[in-house]
Write a structure and sequence with these properties.
The structure is a homodimer of 325-residue chains. Chain A is of the alpha+beta class. In chain A, 28% of the residues lie in helices and 27% in strands. In chain A, α2 packs parallel to α3, α2 packs parallel to α4 and α6 crosses α7.
Chain lengths: 325, 325
């Protein structure tokens, strides 16, 4: 039988493409396999390039407003630039639209894009607009980063502590359409705390942690009860009668930063709350960072409060595989 | 009644976006409104960025092989970089695919992309792959150009001669899936003949000429019988019992270069053929360039061999408008 995409999954496909695409070019620092590509640029700086495609009924549904669709399509790209330690700069917008689409709808998409572009001083330099039976939006974003601040997925070392920004889970409740990409936080981190690795959580904490571990050739242990849960995920779990940690570990589109530090961060510690094992710090932007685990030699394990291994049912979101596989 | 995209058309939409997107950034040389965006880069060079979205049943149909789809999706972007006088460098590939797509089909798309990438030394640096009910492919390409060789749409001057490379029309017969982007020719032109303006013919000769005229604030007269017709368009016109010139003037996706010169090019002239008013030259790559008209003060007119104005039924391809409107 011929292999289908749903058999090898999104990660399988990316690996397949990356393996065929070994790049031998002295100008290319990083090709396929990080949040953005890294290319030689001006003195002391690298150029970053990233692209994301959003499709109707997959990344947004009928309930999403055109403003939200535009906003999200730029936000996911800014998040990728942030995860490299960089500053977003220029965007190109590819839009596939039905002929019957109202001009007002398109204006609203652009209003969403521009509202975020303005906030992060991103300039929209052009794009391509074509007819399509389903709506598609593909934004490509360039950015730049000082060479010394470039932070990749492949630098995590055994013994490093693992942190996340903000709180996880429940992005399905709407946060994925309105989140603020963590540029300010990432810039603070690369300038002051020098993370050994960093990634944005787009496909789920465990899924993206796996990427860091594979790239860094290490393993990780995560203390489940240390994972900062969003208010949304707690109420969602109650409603669905599911474990909120399971939702937070595997839910995609949180767009928080996952990073590793080799040292104790010189920051204000989070006030300890009774009955809560939170261990973290407050960034100057008031966003919390929480230590959720540690880098190990190999394998990814999830531990309960008694340090017992919790079985992982599924590891995250894959565009081509069905949930649970 | 609410305005629909099909009412304002693709050009109407682009104008609408460009007007709202006035850019005041000293790093941006050209934003929306040319074949590629132009940004400050290394000493003596500009960075070029362009993106194109191709959609199933619009830009390719079931008869196109996945190899051809991949090939074309990169070729249209390389053509944009060529039209700026630049050299293509790095590509990002956004792919929307059905879950049922075979892995072999995706491999073939990439084989098509790579075959052309290799020819032009383009490196594929990454991308995004998502599930989609219709196939979508969106390639973003960066390039670079020496400052002195950058050629825009807005430099045509009254009295300049108008040229095209190669022969026009009939791309519908398959050339649009296998054309070789005119990088070599464009590079020769910018280094040796210094065109005052240049564009690639993606939406039809008249349609793209209109863009040059609008950007340069000039007009143009085109001598219909001077237009170099492809063999394909001559046989197609016979079959369809249509005027081959009409097809060549309005057919999209030729991906030849349209450019203007202020002087007589110091090149080998084309051998004159009996009964043929061809007036052109041979580039070192053996590709012909043909003079088809002249830049005027205003308006675009098409003239027959007796210098009489030919009525223009339609001016080119618009993604959102129906043919003939």
């Amino acid at each position: 039988m011929q292999k289908k995409l749903k058999d090898i999954g999104e990660f399988g496909l990316i690996k397949r493409i990356a393996e065929a695409e070994r790049i031998f070019d002295k100008e290319v620092i990083v090709g396929i396999g990080d949040d953005a590509a890294v290319i030689k640029y001006k003195e002391g700086r690298y150029l970053l390039l990233t692209t994301d495609m959003l499709i109707e009924n997959i990344h947004f549904d009928k309930k999403a407003t055109p403003f939200q669709i535009g906003y999200k399509s730029l936000a996911v790209n800014i998040s990728d630039i942030a995860a490299m330690g960089g500053i977003p700069k220029y965007a190109l917008v590819g839009l596939g639209l039905k002929k019957e689409t109202s001009v007002k709808f398109v204006d609203e998409i652009y209003r969403g894009i521009r509202s975020l572009a303005k906030k992060f001083k991103v300039k929209i330099l052009g794009g391509d607009t074509v007819a399509s039976s389903k709506m598609v939006i593909n934004i490509t974003l360039s950015g730049e980063v000082e060479k010394k601040y470039l932070t990749l997925r492949n630098g995590a070392k055994i013994g490093d502590k693992i942190y996340v920004t903000g709180a996880l889970g429940g992005s399905i409740l709407g946060k994925h359409l309105s989140f603020i990409p963590r540029v300010k936080e990432a810039r603070y981190l690369v300038k002051n705390l020098h993370p050994t690795s960093m990634i944005d959580i787009s496909d789920g904490l465990l899924s993206d942690l796996k990427r860091v571990c594979e790239a860094s050739k290490v393993g990780a242990k995560i203390y489940q009860e240390k994972i900062p849960l969003s208010k949304g995920v707690i109420s969602l779990a109650k409603k669905k009668k599911e474990d909120p940690y399971q939702l937070a570990l595997t839910g995609g589109e949180d767009f928080e930063l996952l990073f590793t530090l080799s040292h104790h961060p010189p920051l204000y510690p989070l006030p300890s709350r009774e009955g809560k094992a939170e261990e973290g710090f407050i960034l100057p932007s008031k966003v919390h960072i929480t230590q959720i685990g540690q880098i190990t030699k190999r394998g990814i394990v999830l531990l309960d409060e008694k340090n017992k291994i919790i079985h992982l049912r599924k590891i995250g979101f894959d565009h081509f595989k069905d949930v649970g596989s």
